[in-house]
Design goal:
The chain is an alpha+beta fold. It has helices at about 10-25, 35-55, and strands spanning about 1-5, 30-35, 60-70, 75-85. The protein has one domain (about 1-85): 2-Layer Sandwich (Translation Initiation Factor IF3), CATH 3.30.110.20. The chain has two helices and four strands, in the order E-H-E-H-E-E. Strand 1, helix 1 and strand 2 form a beta-alpha-beta unit. Helix 1 (about 10-25) packs across helix 2 (about 35-55). It starts with a strand and ends with a strand. The model has no long low-confidence stretch (mean pLDDT about 95).
Length: about 90
């Protein structure tokens, strides 16, 4: 599963394009976000990616969960979004 890290400064359209590319190649995607701004950008990217894939008959399912990640030697809590395609 491809892991993409999303920050508050990430461009949602760029992240959506990356999501759509991985899904079109038959893979799954996991987005990792730390903080409210990053989660906001991730959710917008998922909605945009769904719009990119819908005309091809591909729908997305997303499962949110908490996860621990290490940033600069410090453990932080992140929200991860596991995304897969359904046809």
């Amino acid at each position: 599963m491809e892991v993409l890290k999303v920050s508050a400064k990430s461009n949602p359209k760029s992240v959506a394009g990356a999501i759509a590319a991985v899904i079109r190649n038959g893979g799954g995607v996991e987005l990792q976000s730390i903080g409210a701004g990053a989660v906001n950008q991730a959710v917008k990217a998922i909605a945009i990616a769904r719009g990119y894939l819908a005309p091809n008959g591909i729908n997305l399912v997303m499962y949110p969960a908490f996860t621990k990640v290490e940033v600069d030697g410090e453990e932080r809590t992140a929200i991860k979004f596991s995304i897969q395609a359904i046809k």
